[in-house]
Amino acid sequence: xxxxxxxxxxxxxxxxxxxxxxxxxxxxxxxxxxxxxxxxxxxxxxxxxxxxxxxxxxxxxxxxxxxxxxxxxxxxxxxxxxxxxxxxxxxxxxxxxxxxxxxxxxxxxxxxxxxxxxxxxxxxxxxxxxxxxxxxxxxxxxxxxxxxxxxxxxxxxxxxxxxxxxxxxxxxxxxxxxxxxxxxxxxxxxxxxxxxxxxxxxxxxxxxxxxxxxxxxxxxxxxxxxxxxxxxxxxxxxxxxxxxxxxxxxxxxxxxxxxxxxxxxxxxxxxxxxxxxxxxxxxxxxxxxxxxxxxxxxxxxxxxxxxxxxxxxxxxxxxxxxxxxxxxx
Length: 329
Known about the structure:
three-stranded mixed beta sheet, 16% strand, flat
């Protein structure tokens, strides 16, 4: 039998039970009849991207809802009446603001039960609290699952763990940070994903989100029209404040949409630019793995943009790519 690799040694030390116990947070969940507007408010208040959904009457959970499900639902509302989302002419959506806001009201009152796994990438797969993080990474996260509910011996859901929790454990591990592997560059290790999405600052937000939904991406870079340099990052998380804006605000340029979002979630920031809001985290291709892991963990982000000497994006490092590295034989 081969000796455990660095990641296996570190992640096998942490059981899901002990991790949740140390986190000291209660399970945040939604009821199946809760409207989407309430769901977004809950996700925003708790700074989370997903929550399990419980049946209204019974105590059982019926699924998981995350921001990609909500994005898929929004795009379906915007493309209502077309044969398929992929074939939709997004410019046609921008002609009737009154209709768009009416659809926004419909969206806000929709029960969350209708949104469960709309993105078709969010299965509800509970795992045992007795498992380790390496087992979870190897059996689920490495296969594209981003988060998993953790249950006790009686089937009770105790909490949610995600790929980001793996990154956080590595970032706090002296064994990882002092290992020669952590000093290797992201280019050497081949963890730079060169397939990504970018839009210019004047792109309508709805078109940017449409591209994300179509390509099953949770983020894209916002770049300067003049120089192509990265100015910011648009994420599905930015949709969490949508009910507090008019639905037609999705027609605004991405730069204005983000500014409006910040004025909602952080009152007092009247003049927010892409750079002052939450600038995109960037690194060069020469960045070391350990530094990238620490950057992702300290800023609670799921990806880091890789740029050239002119700050133009050339790729990104994702949590999922690092999970794949950790579980690679």
